[in-house]
Amino acid sequence: MPSDTVSDYFRGLRETLERTEREIGKEIARCARLLIGTLRRGNKLLLMGNGGSAADAEHFAAELVGRFLKNRAGLPAVALTSNSAAVTAIANDFGFDAVFSRQIEALAVPGDLVFAISTSGRSPNITQGITAARQRGCVTVALLGKDGGETAGAADHALIIPAHLTPHIQEMHIVVIHLLCQTVEEALFPTEGEA
Asked: Residues 6 or more apart from 128 whose CB is under 8 A from it?
């Protein structure tokens, strides 16, 4: 029985991986070009997500500020989840739905890229963050799953993983994040060696 569970899980994951490449591979490449352009202009990446997606946002920021595969200069990326004092103060004073929009009002400038991560696309704080970003002149990208929820329609660009099982959506989110990091490093630091 456990071996069937293992086999079924990997089979589902392989199918999700193949569908993701086939159905949104070109859009992933397009979003990579947007991110490269943002960083080339001297703008920054602002990231947001809840729960596991908050961890993914922090992971993405860490790969860019630190390094992914290459020894190179740090890149400006901020996870709006990582300042617990700001998140809890805003949630306490303005409500949890404002935890990202308030930070975007404070930190975003025109030309920044705001990147939302959500398995469902149904979190009000994510949608409000995207709205605030667009009002500030930022480009918005949402990495989603299932049907994309309200967030898919609010963002400039929606990368919707073609899956309904949350773990597979989350696994594909990490794949997309790593693809974006690798593409950025190859484009911006072609001569730097791997770590």
From this structure: 97, 98, 100, 101
Q: Distance between alpha carbon 175 and the CA centroid of its chain, in Å?
A: 11
Domain 2-188, CATH number (from 3.30.450.20, 3.40.120.10, 3.30.450.40, 3.40.50.10490): 3.40.50.10490
pLDDT in tens, 18-59: 999 999 999 999 999 999 999 999 999 999 999 999 999 999
DSSP string, 56-87: HHHHHHHHHHS-SSB------EEETTS-HHHH
Judge whether 121 and 151 are in contact, CB under 8 Å.
Answer: yes
- Identify which of 129, 149, 156, 157 has the alpha carbon closest to the alpha carbon of residue 48: 129
Q: How far apart are CA 86 and CA 74, in angstroms?
A: 24
pLDDT tens digits for 104-119?
Answer: 999 999 999 999 999 9
φ, ψ for residue 110, nearest 5 deg: -55, 135
Dihedral of alpha carbons 160, 166, 169, 175, sign: positive
Kind of pairing between the strands at 45-49 and 77-79: parallel
Half-sphere exposure of 15 (CA within 13 A, CB side): 10
Look at the pTM and tell me if it is higher than 0.85.
yes
